[in-house]
Structures are given as structure tokens and as C-alpha cells.
Design brief:
Layout (H helix, E strand, L loop, with lengths): L1 H17 L19 E6 L1 H9 L15 H4 L3 E8 L4 E21 L9 E23 L4 E21 L26 E6 L3 E17 L2 E16 L2 E9 L4 E9 L2 E20 L1
Length: about 280
């Protein structure tokens, strides 16, 4: 992706030096956005990832690591701008990535004498990552190519939950029921997880940025940008709830394990594969 983004920038610069700076379309419409125009666009890095993978059936083309602007905004990014003047704008970006999956596994039925009788254990996993950024942008340039710079304020939220249900229950005659081990949810002492909540975070950051847009048609641009993010992240306390059979009381007991919250401050630079975008103004 570094090569792709760098090629975009080089191409924009080459076009700018070889084409006349005609600021009107064929029908006389303005090429550049004007005061009051709204711009809407998307980050097209996911398309590059899909396109690369379409020629590669065995290896994923990693397009954004944990320190990239794009990764911070999730797998889908909507970009918006409102032009205050021809050279200034306010902007907002919204990134989101969420999923909910149900994993069902068959295990032997402890209550049946039929060796083929089965029951179902289920894990339901829910994940969400949401980021909202708002900022101010200043622009320079008198032709189709426009450089810009400014800063964003970023808010982020992530959530991660796993819930488990089991087909075989606890009993005096079955203190260690047959259970499917999804990923460490069954403990060696016979207890098993029924709920985990962890790595839920809230983040607040600032991001100076710089970028370039080239207007390929009236009020339609392609561009690239990168920046540097300083971010404070609060990780909420994590919790795990286990169940086990207590023989002394002949009851099923729930046990909670809680890990304290923590705070971190980090600074990361998103390099030239931070964002490659297409924007439309109207």
C-alpha cells in the first residue's frame, strides 16, 4: 500500500505539471469546490485490498496495520466536508466495523445412553469499533491540484463480548459435564465461562494531517493524506464470569473475575497508505 499511495501522489504531481490549469469544465461549470459546497467521499483502500486478493487466493494483502489512519477508522470510512470558503473547510469522518457471529458445536449428550445422541454448545461473539473525527482544513493551490492541511479531533469506542451456552448441565452425578472448548472457555477445574467482556476502550485524540487532492472532473477529486495522531485511550475493566458445580451445596455457582481499568497515551504516524480517497462535491 505504501507503493500504491506514493504512486497516487506522484501521478497527481505529474498531471499537475503536464496539464493546463483549466478551472472550468467543458460546459463552463467550476472545477474546484466553492463556499457552501458539501463534499462526500470514501476511503478506497478496501478496494485495493479486494483487488489484490482477487489475484491471490492464499495470502491476504495487508493494507493497514494497527498504526495506520485507516485502521483507526475501521474497515469502512465515510468522509465529509463543508466548504466555508474556497480555501477553508470543516470536515467529519466516520469509521465503523462491527460483527456478531454465532458458533455452534455438537458434543455428546451426557444424559443419554445413546452414543450417537448429541447436544449443542454455542458461543455468540459481538464486536464493534466506531470512530468519529471532526476537524478544520485549510487549502492552497490555484489549479486542479490542491494541497491541504489542518487538524482533527478523534473520538473512538470499541466493544468486545463473548457469551456461552452449553447443552450439558451440571448435576451431582455430572460435576464435570462434557463441553466444547472454543478457545480456553473450559477450565481444568471443571468450571466453564459463560460470559467474557474485555478490551472495551474509549479513545480521544488529535491528529494534524496533510494531503493533496487532484480534481479529475468538475467537483470530483482523488487524493491521499497522512498525519500524526496523539491519542489517550481508556480501557474499561474486563470481566469474566465462570460457572461451576459446588458439591457442598449441590448448586451451580457463578464466579466473577475482574481486571482493573487502565489508561494509555500513544503517538503514531500514519504513513502514505493512511488514506487514498475519492470525493464528490455538490
Amino acid at each position: 500500500m505504501k507503493k500504491i499511495s506514493l504512486m497516487v501522489l506522484v501521478t497527481l504531481l505529474a498531471i499537475a505539471t503536464t496539464q493546463a490549469q483549466d478551472l472550468k469544465g467543458k460546459n463552463g461549470q467550476p472545477i474546484l469546490p466553492e463556499a457552501g459546497d458539501i463534499g462526500l467521499g470514501v476511503n478506497v483502500i478496501p478496494f485495493f485490498n479486494w483487488f489484490g486478493n482477487s489475484f491471490n487466493g492464499s495470502t491476504n494483502n495487508t493494507y493497514a496495520g494497527s498504526n495506520k489512519f485507516f485502521s483507526m477508522f475501521g474497515n469502512s470510512v465515510i468522509m465529509g466536508k463543508y466548504m466555508l470558503t474556497e480555501s477553508t473547510a470543516i470536515r467529519a469522518n466516520f469509521g465503523f466495523n462491527f460483527s456478531s457471529t454465532s458458533d455452534n458445536r455438537m458434543v455428546f449428550d451426557d444424559a443419554s445412553t445413546d452414543p450417537l445422541a448429541m447436544v449443542t454448545d454455542t458461543r455468540i461473539s459481538a464486536f464493534g469499533s466506531y470512530t468519529l473525527a471532526g476537524g478544520y482544513e485549510m487549502r492552497r493551490g490555484s489549479g486542479r491540484i490542491q494541497g491541504y492541511f489542518g487538524g482533527d479531533v478523534i473520538l473512538s469506542l470499541t466493544e468486545n463480548t463473548n457469551k456461552y451456552s452449553y447443552g450439558n448441565g451440571y448435576a451431582a452425578t455430572n460435576a464435570v459435564p462434557t463441553s466444547y472448548n472454543f478457545n480456553g472457555n473450559v477450565n481444568t477445574d471443571g468450571s466453564r465461562q459463560i460470559l467474557t467482556q474485555g478490551n472495551n476502550t474509549f479513545g480521544l485524540g488529535i491528529r494534524p494531517f496533510i494531503g493533496v487532492e487532484y480534481f479529475v472532473a468538475p467537483k470530483m477529486s482523488i487524493g491521499a493524506e497522512f498525519g500524526y495522531t496523539i491519542r489517550y485511550v481508556h480501557t474499561f475493566r474486563s470481566m469474566s464470569v465462570d460457572e461451576y458445580y459446588e458439591s457442598s451445596t449441590s448448586t451451580v455457582v457463578n464466579r466473577e473475575t475482574i481486571q482493573a481499568a487502565r489508561n494509555t497515551v500513544s503517538g503514531t504516524v500514519d504513513n502514505f497508505n493512511g488514506a487514498v480517497f475519492v470525493l464528490f462535491y455538490f
